Amino acid sequence: MPHIHDDHCGHESHEHDHDHDHDSSSTGAQDNLYTHIDRDNVVALNANDDCKGSDAIKPWHERTSEDKVSINPLLILPPSHFFFQIIRIPFTGSVKLRSLLLKTGPTDLTPSKVALFANEDNLDFQDVADKKPTQELDIAQGRDVGEYAVKTAKFPNVSSLTLFFPSSQGAETVRIYYIGLLGTWTERKSNPVITVYEAQANLADHQKIQGTDGNLSTPQS
């Protein structure tokens, strides 16, 4: 399994349910989650020093851009096993995910599949090897933007999404030009912490013990 080569920073059922190059305003604007991604905190593992994990996450109008090339370093652990890229995408709120958009390739430079992990922070290559993904999708060859529908019931309340590209379709590098996400965003609400306490005891608030006339005494030593 080779490493990632990304021209805008390289980066179950094996569903093959996808469409290509949607230009409608609903896909490009209404439910595109680009503005709700915390791009400053996107993390990419196995990425070149010149390549940030967020470079492939672009606005819709730049989805076809191939103006930048970056090659990720090759990791071999153990021998003959190649580790591709992990990209963790945090959101600024809660997301109900509908589709993943990818522009990859061409031909054998296309990833063979992508594993999606919802709300799994800080995954490394050992973690993704041992953990079952929330969903796994096969990736079709082609230079258009492909839309890959996810099972929305598995992604109802997503605060972060981790993508793992485990292999190519034959080459020693993988090209990923564009990553996009479609769905519904809502503001994340945290419940207020309410603390009830008594700052100072008030004898007037407590019943007197019968026969003491309210006088308290302390034991003598």
TrEMBL record:
Origin: domain of life:
Eukaryota
Region annotated Disordered, chain positions: 1-31
- By its UniProt entry, which InterPro entries does this protein fall under? Galactose-bd-like_sf (IPR008979), PITH1-like (IPR045099), PITH_dom (IPR010400), PITH_dom_sf (IPR037047)
Q: Which residues form a coiled coil?
A: none
Q: Choose one Gene Ontology CC annotation of this protein and give it.
A: cytoplasm
Chain ranges of the PITH domain: 22-201
**What Pfam families does the record point to?**
PITH (PF06201)
Bias (Basic and acidic residues) occurs at 1-24
Q: Which PANTHER family does the annotation name?
A: AD039 HT014 THIOREDOXIN FAMILY TRP26, PITH DOMAIN-CONTAINING PROTEIN 1
Return the similarity comment: Belongs to the PITHD1 family.
The name this protein goes by in its record? PITH domain-containing protein
What organism is the protein native to? Collybiopsis confluens
